[in-house]
Amino acid sequence: MKTISTKSQLALIGSGYAAVLALSGVAVYSRQAFLAAHPADVLAASGMYAAGDMMLQVFVTFLLMVPTVFLVRVLSKFEIPARVYSKTLFAVGLSAPLALGVYAFGETLLPPVLGVACFVRLLASPLFVTLMFFSRIVAKFQLPKRLTSYALVSEGASLCVSVAWLALAMTSGS
User: What are phi and psi of 110, to 5 degrees?
Assistant: First the structure.
């Protein structure tokens, strides 16, 4: 079996991103056109339309994960790009406990838009855990393995605390 060169792999990954972004753009545009054409329906069932918007966002995110998985596999073969990627992933992993802390304790002291941003960051946590787990599996060098493991622990612990906090809030009725 003939292997594909790294340049060709990166070109295929780039075209995958372009295809996903084009498809996503068409989907979002058609959704917005539909919403603009039916304002009374949107107003009458705003929660249902908001759920549809959220499903579209999740769909686009999962589509973007496909070329990202291939990109991570290509980056893991080279030490310098793997180090840069793992450092970036580590910073993303540290943003989860920060977002959890700001959302939990700073909500009354800080602007509401920051609380919303922290909530959205925490909603994305399961996707980041999945990406970090895959990145840890394909990591070949020592520093990227270590940094990816730290990021995974930080993100996973924040996710567990978030879920426990949500469960506690649901059982206490607040």
Answer: -110, 165
